[in-house]
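Bug #77: duplicate submission created two jobs. Keeping one. Sequence:
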Amino acid sequence: MDDNDKPTENPKPTSDANITPKNESEISMDSLARKVQESLSLAKRHKFWETQPVGQLKDLGDTNLPEGPIEAPTPLSEVKQEPYNLPSQYEWITCDMDSEEMCNEVYNLLTSNYVEDDENMFRFNYSKEFLQWALRPPGYFRSWHIGVRAKSSKRMVAFITGVPARIRVRETIVNMAEINFLCVHKKLRSKRLAPVMIKEVTRRVHLENIWQAAYTAGVVIPTPITICQYWHRSLNPKKLIDVGFSRLGARMTMSRTIKLYKLPDQTATPGFRKMEPHDVPAVTRLLRNYLRQFVVSPDFDENDVEHWLLPKENVVDSFLVESPETHEITDFCSFYTLPSSILGSQNYTALKAAYSYYNVSTKTPLTQLMNDALIVAKRKDFDVFNALDVMHNETFLKELKFGPGDGKLHYYLYNYRIRRVLQPSELGLVLL
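Kept job's structure:
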């Protein structure tokens, strides 16, 4: 498997320059098949993925295949007990994300080597607090946080993780691993470490009697369950234009652009406030009820909501609407913080980006709720607010002046077949 072949787990940080909006509502089988075929001919085909229990290109559009697991579980006694072999100069390590020292090592590897945009202008810069949040949800397995060290220098040169999740597919709740943060040091990209790392995390997941996984990639590999688009809303347009994230529109001046994206100082919705610990049960009920309508979504309980959605400074922000009359919690919105390093700018080193997470509207119109989210993000000095076109997000994107980015995010399930490619609006799952 070459570098085109490995899942990056996250989309590249994308800019909204050089873009013409397209209607993304229809994903045709033909175009997906063509995309996969093109990517297959780019490299030496996806030899690795063709050996894995994932949807295959040849099966696209075959509605006779049953939905559900592609391969039955192996008896646990038959799961390989020893780690896969690495090249002799490297060794496996299990990463203790409670340890400040280990967290620093992981942070340094990702900061210098993780996902960049195509022009090498921006690179994700996950904070240590974010990594600890992302990797230690309820019931997490430390053994699923896997590093590779060079024996001689003791430097960490590669990383991959899994965390447990309950994912509902239609009516079935499946225990899965969410696989993320696959990162190989730039100088070792030719060593073919990525397939071994994927096999090793799969082995460790199997040892916990879990046989399915969910992951995302910025590239096409066999075979996405849906293809989503990132949209970007300028909060600090001057900075975004200065660093090359976006560009001045035709016949637009900087002052007109700043005016175009200006937001009110105050939120508009009565009862709009920050989520607090005592709100967890109400938010859980609201979210569970909302997510039922999607084909694929997480099955959150109160422990999950407490972990993933209670506000954490510089990690995740959540707001809700409490009816001033009845004190009922009627609406909810959230976003997480994922800055990017700016490579090569004279004036700026970091781009502060908010990513739309889970949003539920029952009484407040979703567009109004999300405009309030934009206002609080601007108040917190975010430069840009990003959102995928999943769930009902498409209904507010254009009205709130989001522009389509130039990157796609492909969602995948491992060892679980969904008979047809989903529309983004049928997906109720956001992976970090």
